[in-house]
Amino acid sequence: MRWYVIALRNHLDSNFYGRASRTEFWMFYLVNAVIVGVLAVTIRVLILLRHAAQSHQGAAAAQPAFSALHVAVAVLVLYVVVMIFPSLTVAVRRLHDTGRPGPYLLFCYIPFGFIWLLTFFAEKGQAGDNQYGPDPRSAVSGGPATRKPAGSS
Questions:
Q1: Stated pTM of the model
Q2: 3-state secondary structure 32-88
Q3: Which of 13, 25, 58, 70 has an alpha carbon 20 to 30 Å from 120's alpha carbon atom?
Q4: So where are the chain's domains?
Q5: Residue 130: DSSP 8-state
Q6: What digits encode the pLDDT tens for the residues 41-74?
């Protein structure tokens, strides 16, 4: 969970600048997957409850489960929408750690391009500083290092 918070903090601090370590990237996506998975299971359970209530007691009895279903779907949609930009920023910063520019994310739009991206995300980052910033594994603060471009404050 610590790396998830670090990735979100780095998103707010630096957006697309700097580098993200493999740990930061994969832990961020793991926590996202768990949260979305829990919400999806909750929605599925509410759908099953709704169908069970409708089949046993009619549509009127299913109304509370249907309302909870709306809330669960709204929470899932809101979470996914809110996490789009942080997910993009951590992916771009992960590409930066391997020495590649952010537009490489566009590979996901070509057939099987996502496999190429997965190999980039799984690669060990470049040792030491590169054109995108300091090595996130050598940060003294215990978390990923970021660098803003010259002239920004």
A1: 0.76
A2: HHHHHHHHHHHHHHHHHHHHHHHHHHCCCCCHHHHHHHHHHHHHHHHHHHHHHHHHH
A3: 13
A4: 2-138
A5: B
A6: 999 998 888 778 777 766 555 565 558 888 999 9
